[in-house]
Every structure is written in C-alpha cells, then in structure tokens.
Design a protein that fits this description.
2 copies of one chain form a homodimer. The first copy, chain A, is of the alpha+beta class and 471 residues long. Chain A has 3 domains: 262 residues, Bira Bifunctional Protein, Domain 2 (BirA Bifunctional Protein, domain 2, 2-Layer Sandwich); 111 residues, Anticodon-binding domain (Rossmann fold, 3-Layer(aba) Sandwich); 69 residues, Translation Initiation Factor IF3 (2-Layer Sandwich). Chain A contains 14 helices and 23 strands. Chain A has a 7-stranded mixed sheet, with helices on both faces. A 5-stranded mixed sheet of chain A has the order 16-15-17-18-19, sandwiched between helices. A 4-stranded mixed sheet of chain A has the order 20-21-23-22. In chain A, helix 2 packs antiparallel against helix 6. Chain A is globular, with a radius of gyration of 25 Å. The two termini of chain A are 17 Å apart. Chains A, B: InterPro entries: aa-tRNA-synt_IIb, aa-tRNA-synth_II, aa-tRNA-synth_II/BPL/LPL, Anticodon-bd, Anticodon-bd_dom_sf, Pro-tRNA-ligase_IIa, Pro-tRNA-ligase_IIa_arc-type, Pro-tRNA_synth_II. Chains A, B: It is found in: Cytoplasm. Chains A, B: Pfam families: HGTP_anticodon, ProRS-C_2, tRNA-synt_2b.
C-alpha cells in the first residue's frame, strides 16, 4: 500500500473488486463471492498450509456443519463465548425441528463428540486432524470482506488429542512453528503473543496468537493456537486407558487460520498499482506479452509460444496474453493483478536472442539471454520473494514502538505511561510494546488506553505487554 | 460385492466403517464424518473432475451458503421443487432475523443473482463457473451414508450462461462428455437418459441424467446435466446486449455431481474382502510389506526402503508398512482398504533380485525382476484399471434387460407388458429397457410398474424407456 495509510480502507475495497478477488455485492451482509482469480490465490495459499500439516502427521477430514444445540452447549465457557453470534436453524421445510441446529462457529464440539468414539486406550493417541471449511458468526459489528465475515468461507481448523500434558505442550510448539513457517512463506510478518486471560479462546487454558499490522497501523489477528488442557476432554469424556493401566483424560489443542490470511497477502504487499503477489500464491506467475510490430507479428507470436511452452512444461503458472489490445493496457491489467514477472517479447530482442523481464514488486525491467531463460526466471522469483518479505518486514517493524524499561512505581507514572501509549497509538499507530508489569496487565489498563491488549510477547529476550488498535 | 446381492446394504455399511471411510455416528441423522482415508478418496476423485473442468474453460469459485428467502423463492417452479426440504435459519444469537435464510439446497439462485451483476453485453459471455461445496436437504426419507444425506458434504455444481440457445445446447453436450469421461476414469458404467417431464430438475427445460446400477440391482442417479433455457435468466434479469445491438436473455445450463460418486466407487468395485480402488483414487496405490525372517530382517527392511524411495520419487502414493505385526494381518488390512498393489519383499526374492507383486483386484501374485520395477508397476496399474472397468461393465450389463420391440396396440398387451416388467424388476432387478412408445411414457405407467421411469435412453440406435427401482 505504498506510503499512504489514510485511505487504506478505500484502497482495499477497490482492489478486491478491480483485481477480481471477492465480490461483496451479495444481498446478505458479510457474505460474498470468491471470484475465480481470488479463489486461486486462496487455493494456492491453503495448499501450502495443507502440505505443512500433512507433512507433520495431521490428517485432513471433514466434519458436519450442523451442531445440535445440546452438543454446542455442553462445554459451558465455550458456548458463553459464542451464544450471541450463533446462527440457528429451527425449521426443516415447514416442520419445526425438535432440536435447534447451530451453524458451526468453530468445530470443537462436533469433533470432540466424535473423538470420544475413537479414543479408548493410549495407543489411539495422538489424534491430529484438520479440516478446511466454512464457519458462521452472526457479526453485529461492521463487516469487512475477508476480514470480518458472517460466512467465514475458509477456516482451516486443526484439532489434536494427546496422552500427556507434555505432548499437548509440544503440539502447541509444533503448531506455532508451522504457522510461523506458513506466514513466512507468504511474507507476512507477525507478532506472536500469549493472549490475556480475559481474551483467550472460550474453553481454553491459554491462547497463543499471531497478529500482523495492516498498512493503516491496526493489527489483525491471523492465527491462533490454543492449549485446551483437559477442559473439553472432561466434558466430552475423552477418557482413555494409560500405558500403566490407569485412566486419564486426553490433553487437547486446536489451532486455526482463516480467510484473513488472504486479506493479509493483499493488504501487506499491494501498492497503488494493485496487487503484488508472492510467486507461490500467484495464479499467474509469469505473463508473456508479445510486442506486435507491423509485419513482424509472426516472429513475436512464435517466440511467445515457444517461451510459453518451455515455462509451462517446467510447471510454472504462465499465461500468454494474446488479446487484441495495446500492450500498455495489458501491462496495467497484470500489474493490477499482481503477476510477479512479465516477459516482453519484441522483434529486436528476439533478433538479439534477448528476453526482457519486468518485476512487479520493484518495477525493474532488465534483459536476460534467451539461453538463460529458466535460470533467469528462477533467480528472479527467488529475488522477488526475498524483496517482498523484506519490504513487509520493514513496514511492519516501522509500526512497532518499544518503550523503555522504566519502573512504574506510582500512579503518576502510570498515568504518564497511559498518555504516552495513547499518543503513540494516535500518531504513529501500530503496536506499542510496554515492558511487562503485572500491575498493568489487566482489563482496567486496557480500557484506559482505549485500545486492545494483544498479550504478552517476547522481544530480544524481554517480556512486553503488546497493545494496539485492532481490527 | 462379488455375487452376493442380498446383503449389499449390510456390506456397504460395514465397509464404510471398517475401511475408515465415513463415520455415521454423528448425532444428526444424515450427517456424518469423512474420515482421513475416505477424505483422500474424495480428494483424488474430485481432483479428476476439477482438472477436467479447468481444462474445458470452467473457473472454480465459491459462493455463499446462505440464501435469503426472497431470493430462493424468486423462480417459482424451482422453489416448489425444494420447499419441503429446505433448512431455515431464523435466528442470529437470540435475535430473530428480518429475512429467513435458507441453507443452499443447490446454488442456482445465489449464482444467478451474481451473474446479473456480471452480464451486460454478449462479450461477457459465456460464463462457466463451478464450485465444490456442502449443500443441505431436510430428507424425510431413510438416509444412507454418502447416498442420501442431509448434509451433502460434496456437491460439485457447474453453472453456465451463454449468448445463444445453440451455445447452451453445445454446453450440455460438453458437460455430458466431461461426465462420461469422469465416470469412465473411475470405472463406473452409466446409463444416460433424458429424464421425463415430471421428473426433471425444478426450473429446467430438460434434464439429462447419469444412473449406475448398484450390486443390489437398484439404480442410483450419480450425475445430472440441465438445460435451463431462459427460465432463470428471465427471472434474474440476465439480459444482455447482443452482437447486433439487440437485447436477449442468457441461455443457461447447470450440472452436478455429489458424494454419490464416492459411494459408487465403493459399491461397484468392492468385494467380500473389502474395497477395490482404482489406482487413480487410491490413497495408497502401493503398499510394501517386508517379510522379516529371523536374522535377515535388515536385508528385507533395507530393500523395502530402497523400493519405497524409488516409487515415492516417481510420484506414486506408496506406503511402507513396518508395523510390528504379522504380515498376514497387514495383507488383510490393505486388502480391506483396497490398495491396488502389494509388494512383498522376502530374503529369497531379494537374493534372486525378484519382487513379488500382488494385485488386489484379481488376487493374482506374480514376480517381476527387480530391474523391471517401474515398468512392472506401471503395467500392473494399467491392467488393474482395465480389469476393474471390465468387471464393473460386465456386472452392470448383466442387470440390463432389453425388451423386444413389440407393438402394444391394445390394453391387454399393455397389461401383459406391465406384468412382464414387474416380473423382471422383481427377479432379475436392474434396468428394463422398453421400446419407446408414447402411450407408455407417462406417470400412470410409472405407477403401474411400481418402479421409476428413468427416462428415454438410446441403445444400439433405438430409443427405449428405461425403468428401474431406484435409490
């Protein structure tokens, strides 16, 4: 989003429409359509996390969307956390249902109901399953496409059960690691914090969260990892025979990622010309545009097809744009849509056995030898990924303010601190890291700064309270 | 399912559980869980149809699951076809909704609402989109896993809009062709018929349907292609400017395939020992079982790992079963789960540079030279696919009875015909093809035979009325 922060919201809405990612003109607030181009970004992004989960022993499965009221209400804290935002199905045809059915807001209860049937003895553990599904929240707040939806079209939720507390702890670590790698693959910098007690997932022992910072300086939660302890296991009777013949309840974790990761790819990397997509999620990684000079059209088209076939064969997502419009319009279209590399093929280059490459991320144009095509493309892709990450890191870091480690011994100091935090949040925006002080770590403080406490985070070996205005 | 027809239903329920495909013990009738193994079969099967659709210019997208009541009710015939089986969301939290929301039973109405926003002029056409989503029917009939569900977990629905009637007709042909190829890839024989007027899709001009025949002799509808004409287009105002500057409404088609294709793979190919999976959808295509003789364990394990790595590298879905249980139990497990090829590696074979292959479909065991591993695997896979198809064809054909082309001029003849059809359906079961006679082609006749009229089908150049007992 370049340097302009003020109009981010407008820019974001605009790009979703113009780059054909998501159409929000559906007649239900908070429900929209993933358009084909957006759908592909979603597909490639979630393919990355699917592979990471598969490689670490997670199994993809698919659980029902409807949850009977009594099942959802079984875990007391959990239902309290959701009861105002659950959609209820009350009728089948004209017939009132005996038991109301909830549209899943998340799937702890249906999955743990099934786990009870699967867990008898310690050798049945661990269970590590995940699904990628739609979930629903009756949002009363202002909705935003891919950020705050009533139908969350893409929720990747993983659920695990273990024989020991230590195994569950290790699973939390594994999950954090997977998410770190995933966001890194997408060039999305994050701040990892332990959410405060008053903001943890309903029913969890504790919640670890990934927040990123959007170009308007507000943070967005884009991933969470929960250690559920034995809370749900006791409610759902996930009791098993231990190795030494005793009985215990399973130790559980769960962790999720949603459409917000797509919103973040768009928001963090884009600029005033449109999308800038990391090559690994770009629906079109390379667009080939023949420059058709009169009388030499055939030379350019033949070369374009040759290059297209070479790249296609190597598995690149490549497109030959042979529309009958001026090259300049094609350039704009593909810059808007964020294709990482553009290849221009004109008669002079072809004669000199050169190929002109254009990088969407930096706007650089340069030539390579025709013989070096594959190396040139591979190197450029790697360089693009690196540059995209560096830029995003730089911008996110510029939004982080680390406060000095002063002792806040008396109330005057605390008031000064509050004023200081409020000032930074108003002017520089972003995240303020306040040296950890247990006297500050409460809801009263959160209220006084008129912002959110993200939680406790570590930075250079020190503990901080991270605060920010959030989405 | 071998030769036993009587206990198909029991066999089917049993195999879903034992082969870990689908767990139906969820506390809502008609809602269940795709277990990891079943999920993978689903994934590979739908990957095949996705590729076929992508290659023929269809774009995958994702539309909302909730449909406002007024939108669903817009096309009169359409809603009449569904109103008894629609689930209604009436509340968000404790708040009654202003407009009731339907869980999509199918997505004509939401998709065509959006198409209105996308179609202005003939160059906007054709539009060919599809999605793979969950849909819902409040079934009052007996539900059956993957066959008759309340949550249809997998519905691949394609929707198209065209500038001319002819284009829509051609689209119907393309769709039929895609489905033909798809079912052929899975070795599922089908009967294609034009559904009778009284059984076409609500709102369509006509419906073409794919039925297969299950081992119990009942038919199952596993794919439909609808020509919608301009019915929906007029309701949803899909008006566009034609090439010659006039106005017209779009011509539309839609076509769908569901979880029933998974049920068919299981039902049509399996036998008394369990699943027999076509290699292209088998989660494990090749299982390697080292035969560990005392003192020679290392030789077998090393060779097993070597073979595993060779096959893995070539892209096969291969598993080395190194569990500490007897080989016989492993054999049974993987025969139950339908792995197409088993490789047994014992010390004597290894010494002789031989590899023993076992084919799940025929039960044959044979040796190949170690050096011929890849060729041997490829040839065997091809042969398995061929044999699976042939067997399924044979069985389905054995269920088809073609009646003589007698003229049924008077009522006595018609009554004799009815008796004859009833007798065949009771004894031989399957599909009866009755030479087309317009006097027979009505609901009264359907009632009299106490079975279903599938529709009109062609066989050896003649037209028949196809009738059967259906799922």
């Amino acid at each position: 989003m370049g340097e302009t922060v003020e109009n981010f919201s407008e820019w974001y809405g605009n790009i979703l429409e113009r780059a054909e990612i998501y159409d929000l003109r559906y007649p239900i607030k908070g429900c929209g359509v993933y358009l084909p181009y957006g759908f592909k970004i979603r597909k490639y992004a979630f393919e990355i996390i699917r592979n990471m989960l598969d490689e670490t022993g997670h199994d993809e499965a698919l659980f029902p969307m409807l949850i009977p009221e009594d099942l959802l209400a079984k875990e007391g804290e959990h239902i309290k956390g959701f009861e105002d935002e659950v959609y209820w199905v009350t009728h089948g045809g004209k017939t009132p249902l005996d038991v109301k059915l909830a549209l899943r807001p998340t799937s702890e209860t249906p999955i743990y109901y099934m786990m009870k049937l699967w867990i008898k003895v310690h050798t049945d553990l661990p269970i590590k399953v995940y699904q990628v599904v739609n979930t629903f929240r009756y949002e009363t707040k202002h909705t935003r496409p891919l950020i705050r939806l009533r139908e969350i079209m893409t929720f990747k939720e993983a659920h695990t059960a273990h024989a020991t507390k230590e195994d569950a702890e290790n699973q939390v670590k594994e999950a954090i690691n997977i998410y770190k790698n995933f966001f890194d693959e997408l060039g999305i910098p994050t701040i990892i914090s332990k959410r405060p007690e008053w903001d943890k997932f309903p029913g969890a022992e504790y919640t670890m969260a990934f927040d990123t910072i959007f170009p308007d300086g507000k943070t967005m939660q884009i991933g969470t990892v929960h250690n559920l302890g034995q809370n749900f296991a006791k409610t759902f009777e996930l009791e098993f025979e231990t190795a030494d013949g005793g009985k215990d309840y399973a130790y559980q974790t769960c962790y999720g990622i949603s459409d917000r990761v797509i919103a973040s790819i768009i928001a963090l990397h884009g600029d005033e010309k449109g999308l800038i997509l990391p090559p690994n999620v770009a629906p079109i990684q390379i667009v080939i545009i023949p420059l058709l000079f009169k009388g030499k059209e055939e030379i350019a088209m033949n070369k374009a097809e040759e290059v297209y076939n070479t790249l296609k064969e190597k598995g690149f997502r490549v497109k030959l744009d042979d529309r009958d419009i001026r090259p300049g319009r094609k350039f704009n279209d593909w810059e808007l849509k964020g294709a990482p590399i553009r290849i221009e093929l004109g008669p002079r280059d072809i004669e000199n056995k050169k190929i002109t490459l254009f990088r969407r991320d930096t706007g650089e144009k340069f030539q390579i030898n025709e013989d070096d095509l594959l190396d040139g493309i591979n190197n450029t892709m790697n360089s693009i990924m690196k540059t995209i990450k560096e830029k995003a890191n730089e911008r996110v870091n510029s939004f982080i303010t680390i406060m000095d480690n002063k002792n806040n011994k008396n109330n005057n100091d605390i008031e000064a601190l509050i004023d200081n935090v409020k000032e930074i949040l108003a002017e520089k925006k972003g995240v303020v890291l306040i040296p950890y002080d247990k006297n500050l770590y409460n809801e009263e403080f959160e209220e006084s700064i008129e912002a959110s406490v993200l939680g406790i985070t570590k930075c250079n070996g020190n503990e901080y309270i991270a605060v920010a205005r959030t989405y």
